[in-house]
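@channel sequence for tomorrow's demo:
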Amino acid sequence: MTANPRGSDVEYLLDGFEHVETVEDFRARLKLGRPIRVKLGIDPTSPDLHLGFMVVLDKLQRFAQAGHEVTLIIGDFTASIGDPSGRNAMRPPLSREQIEANMQSYRDQAGKVLDLDRVKIRYNSEWLAKLDFSDIVRLVSHVTVAQMLERNDFHNRYDAGTAISLHEFLYPVAQAYDSIAIEADVELGGTDQLFNLLLGRQFQRDYGQLPQICATVPLLVGLDGEKKMSKSLGNYVGITEDAQTQFGKLMSMPDDLMPTYARLAAFQSQAQADALRDALAAGTTNPIDAKKALAESIVARYHGPASAAAARAYFERTVQRKEIPQDNLPEVARGDARRVADVLVRAGFAESRRAAERLISGNGVKVDGIVVDDPRAAWTADEPAVLSVGSRRFARIVP
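structure tokens (generated this afternoon):
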């Protein structure tokens, strides 16, 4: 067994998981006298990861630190099928070019939480691309259509009369085969992946392997406080975003989300998250101060303590004290732009003049601290001036 004394500590290894199938099996697997094989699969469906992905990566790191055999499987093959989990419509499959472009950044981003020297990274095309049609037929013979329709997203779409493509049924089958390929003892995932994980457990049993233990983590609620964090919903904090952007976004979270983010995004203990919740409820801590401390601790993980402290200071200066920043602003040449709306587009603050005019109409645009309220306003500054949108986006416009 691993020399790390925490390698057999069930409470330590399973801390923070929402569902484990089963704890008894996990205890028994730890007694086999060898490091257990732990698997997590992620599909390169976008160029960037967000804080929601980090929840399960932190748990994977815990197994790695404890001395177990940890494998991060990047689903370059399954991404070409498209994961329908949690969706009410078919997810478009990605092209090979998109997949390869996304895979390039995954390793570096995962390394923000994972010690990659302790983790194997593999791509499931290694084994899935080698299967022939008879292999596929043999695989799908182990699962019924009724089983597939038990999955919430398929069930809901079937009841609503929404089309389900046959190839979508192959996604959980392919993910289940990943577990067979590496003979996983444990598979980690979000709660929305439980069906896929349990199918892997079934397949392993059918193929004569020890069935894997399925351990799922809660899904991180996005900054809107309603739906899970998702780039497509715009309620996310991206791992590659700069420190100021991350900090500013985190300060927009509802107060009642703070204990959840302390637990899942700052990786604090349950006791610490509960203490924060109780302090907020009792009014013994200032919510703004608590949120700033929490945001700083999260940003520090991805950018370091110095950058996190600077991001906090920037927020306090520009948002709380409403000072106009003067240092380290990006400079944008006004060129031939004659209206404020056109300058907004040049600065990258709006995608089109129409979008820029909407920002102005919402009283969110300022020039040197003065609100611009006319969507057709001319740019009148002859000297360099600071253009701002909201409280976090600034640029110095030069003639």
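heads up for whoever presents: The CA atoms of residues 225 and 254 lie 6 Å apart.
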